[in-house]
Amino acid sequence: MFGVIRVKERKRNNNLLIFCIITLIGLLLSGFIFKPKAIEAQEPLEVLTVVVKNGDSLWKIADRYDNNKMDLRKYIDIIQKYNNLDNTVLQPGQRIKVPIFHTAER
């Protein structure tokens, strides 16, 4: 009787081990497949000079020129650093540099 219990217990433990290994492999593979784009570490492909129009904001400009669809907050932060801006207030006629990033398509 104890032998039957041990066989069932061993089989259950083996199934649990196999499940854990498959789950771990899946998590590792998903990290490679869905890894985030490291835009901030890349040099821009080009830097455009944009003249601010009436009603423009950094949010609108970032949304207009973000062809990678990165987090707009990060992109705004990058634009602010390129232009040494302390805040997000822009004036019509002001010229700002907007870095354009491109990533490899899958």
UniProtKB/TrEMBL annotation:
Task: List, alphabetically, the CDD domains matched.
Answer: LysM
Gene3D superfamilies membership: LysM domain
Q: Which UniProt keywords apply?
A: Membrane, Transmembrane, Transmembrane helix
Keyword Metal-binding annotated:
no
Cited Pfam families = LysM (PF01476)
Q: Coiled-coil segments, which residues?
A: none
For this UniProt entry, which segments traverse the membrane? 16-34
Q: Show where the LysM domain sits.
A: 48-98
- For this entry, the protein name equals LysM peptidoglycan-binding domain-containing protein
Give the organism the record lists.
Answer: Thermanaerosceptrum fracticalcis
